[in-house]
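Preliminary data (for renewal application), calcium ion complex.
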Amino acid sequence: MAIFIIYTALFNANAQTPFNDPNWILIPTWHDEFNGLEINSTYWTVKNYFDHYLYSVDISDCSFTKGDEGQLYRNRKRSYQGQNERETSIYNYDIENGTLKLLLQNDNCDCPPNMRTPWGCSMQYYFDHCGDNIPLYHFSSAAIELKDDFRFKYGYIEARVKMNCGNGFFPAFWLFGIDDSSLHQGSNYQEIDVFEMQYGHYEDNLGIVHDQNIMTSNRHYTLEQIHKSTLYTIYDYTNYHNYGLEWTPSKIIFYVDGYIYRIEKNDGIFDSKKIIFNFAIHENEANNLGDYFPGIMDIDYVRIYKPRTDYSTILNMNNYDFSSHDNKVKKKIIMTGNNALQTTDNVYLRATDGVEINGDFIVPLGAELYIDVNEAY
Ligand SMILES: [Ca+2]
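Predicted structure:
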C-alpha cells in the first residue's frame, strides 16, 4: 500500500480561508470590530512612553550605532473639546466610524525621567547613561498590544488595514511571544510578522517569520524569494486589504485578501503570542523623510478563526464527488480506486492522522488542491 502525505498549494489559488469558506469559525472569546468610542481595554494595552527598540548599544563604552525605531509611543487619544468638536492637539490614536486609527506624528517629545528604564524610553535612558547629548524623540506614534489573557495560538488571524505611505514609515502587524523585558536576551525569540513594511519599500516586507536562527543571522525573507508577481498586481496598501495569517503546528501561511502568497514550514514557533499593531519610523530613514505626516494606519477589524472539525470521521474516497466535499478537518482521508477533481474544483483535504492516496488520483489543470496534515489544534 502506497501512502502519500502531500503538502501542496497552488499559488494564485483562491485559498480556503474564512474569506470564502464557511468551515472556519470565528473564535467566540474575542474579536474586535472597533465599533465603540473607546478602545476595549479588556483586550488591548495602548503603549505609553514606550520605545521599541534599540540595538547595538554597548553600555560599557557607550558606543551606539543605530536605533531601530525613531519614535516614542504614546497613548494620547483624540478627544472632543465640545459637542462634535475634535480637539486639535497632538494625538496618536483615535476611533472613528468603526475604525481604529494609529497616528504617526512629526512631533518632538521627551521622556519623563521616571520612565527612563531599560524598557521604557530606552533610547533616552542609554543616552542619559552615557552622558551624551540627550536627543528628543522626533516623532510620536501609537502601538497597541493584545493582553496576555487573549494570546493567540494556531488558527487564522485576519485584520483589515490600510496605511498611507511615506519614506521611512514602518507600520507592522505582528505576533510576539515573550515579555518585553527579556526582548534583548536573544533566547526564545519568536516573532511572526503578518506585515512589516519599512523604508517605504512596502512591497518587500510582507510575511516575515523570525525565529532565533533567522534573527541571529539577521535574515529577512522578502517577496522576491517567494512570490512577488501576485502581490505586485493586486496590492495597493493605501486601500483596505485583508492581511491574514494561518498558523498551524506544521506551517505558517500568509494571505492577502484570501490569496496565499507565502508558505513557511513551522520550525519551532509553538507558543502563544501577543498580537501587536504599531506604526514606527525606521531610524535609518529618519533623515530622509518626506512630508507625509501624519502617518495613519486604519484598522477596521481584527478577527481570529479556527477550522471546523470532524475529528471522528475517517473519510473513504472512491469515485468521490468532490463538488460536495466540506473542508472540515477529518481524522483520516483514504483514497482508493479512481478519484478525480474537476477543473473547477477547489478542494482542501485536512486530516489529523494522514491522507492516503491509493489507486488513481487525477488533478487536472485548473483544479485547485491543498492537502494538510496537522495534529489537532
Ligand atoms: Ca470596524
